Amino acid sequence: MQHIFFFFITFMTGWIYSCSEEVNPFERITDLRPLGIVADQPIVASATTVNLEIVVALPIGQNIDSIAQYDDPEANPSLKLSPELSSTEGTYEEFGPLKIYTHTAQVAIPTLGATTLAQFGGVVRLSYGFLIVSAGKTEKVIGEIRYLADSSTLAAWSSPRVTIEEATGEADGNESKKLVGTLDQSNDERTKISWYVSSGRIKNRQAPETTWTEADAGLQTVILAAYAVDSRFFTYTVVTREI
Amino acid sequence: MLKGPLKLAAALAIFHLICTTSTQGEPTLSSPQEMDTGPTEVSIICREKGTGKPLKRVRITTGQSSVFSDAKGVLKLRIDTNTPSTLSLRKSGYKPFELSTQGLKSRDIYLVPDIVPNLVVVRSKKNKSISKSTVSVAEAKAVAPRGDPLQVTTFLPGVKASSFNPRLVVRGSAPEDSKYYIDGIEVPFMYHTIGNISVIPGDLIREVDFYAGGFSSQYGDATGGIVEVATKGTQIERDFTQITVNMPIFSGFYSQGKLAKGETYSISGRRSYLEQVLPKIIEDATVIPSFYDSHFSYNLQRESGESRFLLLSASDALTLKFPGSDFSDASGTTSFNIYTYFGTLGYTHTQNIGGRSTITAVPQVRYTRVRNIFADNYVKIKGYDTKLPLSWTKRIGKDKFTLGVEKMLNTATVNVLAPKSEPDNPFFDFEEAEVEETSVDYTSAGLAGWSEYEWNLQPFRFIPGIRIQQTQDVRDGPSIDPRFLVTYTWNKDTTLKASVGSYSQNPQPQELDDNFGNPKLTHEKYMHYIAAWQQNWGNGWDTDLQVFQKNGEQVIRSNALTNYANSGSARTQGMEILVRKQDQGKWFGWLSYALSTAEDRKSAIDPWFPSQYDQTHNINLVGNYRWSKQWSTGGRINYHTGDRYTPVSDRVYNAGLNKYQPRVRTEDRYQDTLPDFHQLDLFTTYEQLFDFSKLIYQFGIEYIAFNRPAYGVQYNYDYREKNYIQGIPPIPYVQITGEF
């Protein structure tokens, strides 16, 4: 009997353990979230002015408190830029429970000499940054512009485009919803895709075709964004879906 | 993949059916008793139940006289089998056996083993090294999960073992600073990645020596600790074969025997299947380990010496999956695949050459293959390590002089496709780094010479030694390491020891690479200072108290310009205590405690920071209780301060890569610790004895904890929330070993 008791204790004790808690998934936007920076010329080959548009998502009841230039002291790129915001106020556009905030800025690109270009192997990384504050949360957003020594390759780079096709099938909080995104790009470069939603989970958040689960009932927001890793082109699209 | 284990289970079941045809638990007669008339000569063979091993010196008392069995267990009696009387057979360590003389005929009898103390030695007073721990296999088996005696090294003071790192952290040293040997043959690791399961079967092992520091001049290119395993060799006492089925971890077999007088062999093989079971138990399993190992040994004993031939291979694979931003798949999951294999062929020969002198040679060659894959990147290494240690030992009165030389030749081919590392840039990002493809062939040769003199001048013993080693790729000339140990035997119960020694270690091969490393690196140099007090308190209690200091110079650290440089320093200090209760009856055990601090710095002008391997407290409580000869319960409780890590202090969102990049402060280096680690391993063993065989059942659980142990920190996508990378949950297991 003594031994049987011991076995029982041994085995029962073994199942007492706790599991780790799940953290908020990447794709679910519940607070201030920078999505990217649209640059009309992310790759340049001479002195010019580049127009930037900072794109931020946030819950419908939340506003941007401030936005300013940010100089990342730890940034690794070759040279740093100082963009200027176009105005003090940006633009809000509502999409269901989320809204998209955009703010434009301009950054002057200086002429880089041959020595500088040679020093960095013909491609100079020019960095800039913005500091965005909303409801007590601060986001430091950094971006880059690539300065090429050879201007003849500029024409080869263009921004990709993304669209979200109509989702098929009905969905509610307990059912999954199929999402199909399309990426149209002419550049031969790696482009990262990313889905965002106002609620629920995305099974494969970096795949064009994926599944959306556990979404809340009502009007929901779906965002599809694309990030071209070499050229730094950024594009996105936003839709709403009734769940 | 379960076919193999299922076959073994089926074989075990058949074996069990065969075995259960004989009576269990009580002494038995091998044939029915018959009546006879008149005085008769009766021959009885006394054997041990469970193994069938003949027992010598079994006493049988008839009236006023006693007779003893001979070396083959044979007892010859001339008795009247018609007159009813009782014979009593007795032997120390076995239950008494009563035998009726009526109708008695020649036959075998089987004595059931009783509880006897294991003769164990931990930190023997005869040890000539200051921090040497010698653990008997019987004891180690009784306290280690699955009866794996090599695990005992992880229960000793100053040792930290990770469940998923097959190498030990000894007194704050990095895992690569320690070395592992089997009969003098070096192996790259002694444990598999899962549960510290050793790469060789426990029944092959005769003794495990563990040196936490201050080790002999015999050992070079190590600044941490040494684990030296001695196999049974020609001391294999009997033939048997074991089949082990462990659910859910592995299955295996082991066989040993005598081929002729002075000739023995052993062979084994094991394969895990946890990698099949784990994903079925734990959804989204993040760590999936697997392993196999095998060995063959042949041993030959002659008057002039002993030869041992060992062929050993072991393989480990580990798949890691976790949410990540770098090179993640469509679901946002990043995965690593790590595979390591080594095969070793070694020959250990000891020759008596007369004049109280012996020569020992251990030629050995090892093939190693490593394959680490991370997304589209990889590091693949294939190489051969050849060594020829040769030593001459001469005894001069009570003293001993040893002179050794060692020739090393290492060749390796390394293929790397990986982002070029910037080790000094804390904000280095793999996705932004330039990818390099490199293929390098390494050849490195070395020559070492060492000498040691053991001078016994009672009550003192002095052991000065020196080791000189020259390695082809290390450009600062030979390393010269003098070492000195003195012991003072106060009385038969008290011994004091002190040791000081220099220990050098070559740079790791990757640190010498032209592209990823720095070919101008030199040796790392460490000094060990140790003082010890060993006390026997009587009634089986003894203690061992040690204080130590370990200082490192020319320690290799990352460097922005040269990848690596010998600019660093390291220091570790602490105390360790081992309180031990020897096995004098039904139980034994020990409590080990280590208190230490380990720090390092990047250069002489930089401040000291905690080392990655710093661990303030480490406690092990280990024990075994035998309810009866068949039943025993063992286990250990381990508590230690959580591992150190560098916290993320800030983050930026990189809009070009769509990911957050962490920012850490230099002053935060290894400033935070994981939650304290506590673990309970518990098991009960039952031996079911048959005449010539036995079944050993072990039921247990490893990694029992109220919180699953944390092995690292995992941040969420924006580094604002953190989560601990947790080990596997408690694993209840059933292990059945059939021995016949």
Helix and strand string of chain A, N-terminal first?
HEEEEEEEEHEEEEEEEEE
**Unreliable segments of 5+ consecutive residues of chain A:** 1-21
Shape of chain A: globular
The proportion of residues in beta strands of chain A is over 45%
What report would you give on this structure?
The complex is a heterodimer of chains A (243) and B (740). Mean pLDDT of chain A is 82; it is low at 1-21. Chain A contains 2 helices and 17 strands. Chain A is mainly beta. In chain B, the strands form 8 sheets. Chain B has a 24-stranded antiparallel β-sheet that branches. Chain B contains 3 helices and 44 strands. Chain B folds into 3 domains: 28-111, Sandwich (Immunoglobulin-like); 132-228, Beta Complex (Ferric Hydroxamate Uptake Protein, Chain A, domain 1), CATH 2.170.130; 229-698 and 713-739, Beta Barrel (Maltoporin, Chain A), CATH 2.40.170.20. Mean pLDDT of chain B is 83; it is low at 1-9, 12-37 and 117-126. Chain B is mainly beta. The chains are: A mainly beta (243), B mainly beta (740). Chains A and B meet through helix 1, strand 1 and strand 10 of A and strand 37, strand 40, strand 41 and strand 43 of B. Strand 10 (137-148) of chain A pairs parallel with strand 37 of chain B, so a sheet runs across the interface.
Outline of this structure?
Chain A has 243 residues and is mainly β. Helix content of chain A is 8%, strand content 47%.
Layout of helices and strands:
The complex is a heterodimer of chains A (243) and B (740).
Chain A: H1 2-14, E1 33-39, E2 43-44, E3 48-59, E4 66-69, E5 79-80, E6 84-85, E7 91-95, E8 98-109, H2 114-119, E9 123-134, E10 137-148, E11 161-164, E12 177-184, E13 191-197, E14 201-202, E15 209-213, E16 219-228, E17 234-242
Parallel strand pairs in A: 2-10, 5-9
Antiparallel strand pairs in A: 1-3, 3-8, 4-9, 6-8, 7-8, 9-10, 11-12, 12-15, 13-16, 14-15, 16-17
Chain B: H1 3-19, E1 39-48, E2 59-62, E3 65-68, E4 74-80, E5 86-90, E6 97-100, E7 107-111, E8 132-136, H2 137-143, E9 159-162, E10 165-170, E11 179-182, E12 185-187, E13 205-211, E14 226-231, E15 240-247, E16 250-260, E17 263-272, H3 274-281, E18 287-302, E19 305-323, E20 333-354, E21 357-361, E22 364-374, E23 377-396, E24 399-419, E25 435-457, E26 460-471, E27 479-491, E28 494-505, E29 524-538, E30 541-559, E31 563-581, E32 587-601, E33 609-610, E34 617-626, E35 631-640, E36 644-645, E37 650-654, E38 659-663, E39 672-673, E40 677-689, E41 694-704, E42 710-715, E43 722-726, E44 731-739
Parallel strand pairs in B: 1-7, 11-14
Antiparallel strand pairs in B: 1-4, 2-3, 2-5, 5-6, 8-13, 9-10, 11-12, 13-14, 15-16, 15-44, 16-17, 17-18, 18-19, 19-20, 20-21, 20-22, 21-23, 22-23, 23-24, 24-25, 25-26, 26-27, 27-28, 28-29, 29-30, 30-31, 31-32, 32-33, 32-34, 34-35, 35-40, 36-39, 37-38, 40-41, 41-44, 42-43
